[in-house]
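Board notes (copied after class):
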Amino acid sequence: MLRCREEAVSPAERARLAGYGAGSDGTPKGYEVTGRRARQAVTNTNEIDLFELTAKMAMRDDGWAELKAVRGHMNSKDETLQLFEKIDITTDLDDHAALTEAHVDLTAGQVVSSKPVALNFQRADLTADSMQLFQNGERAVFTGNVKMTLK
């Protein structure tokens, strides 16, 4: 059985992973994932469980999105992140999204959730049963019980 210590650490001691993906135009888009705590099996160094995590990834041409979750699972080889519990997404445009589960492909700039989502934009609110963001947020697809309120 793998055990991990459950103590708070300073920001300098937090688990941190960073890398680059490609934007829709082929330019490099950076990302960074940090966790207050991390757990990693000695036998599989590509798989990391993160707790109280924050991820920052490039969106659109020059924007960004910050994703926060209670817990997540990072595959550093595939550069993917599974997020669970109280996921909050905030963008540089002050857009907000609330999710309960999400699969994030950090290099492709994709965020997919098959669970209900709620988004708040400056001029609209949107809810749906599922969401797919592609091409670093340049394209979005919402399905199932999609409701939008324009402000």
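Comment from the instructor: The mean pLDDT is 86. The two ends are 52 Å apart (CA to CA).
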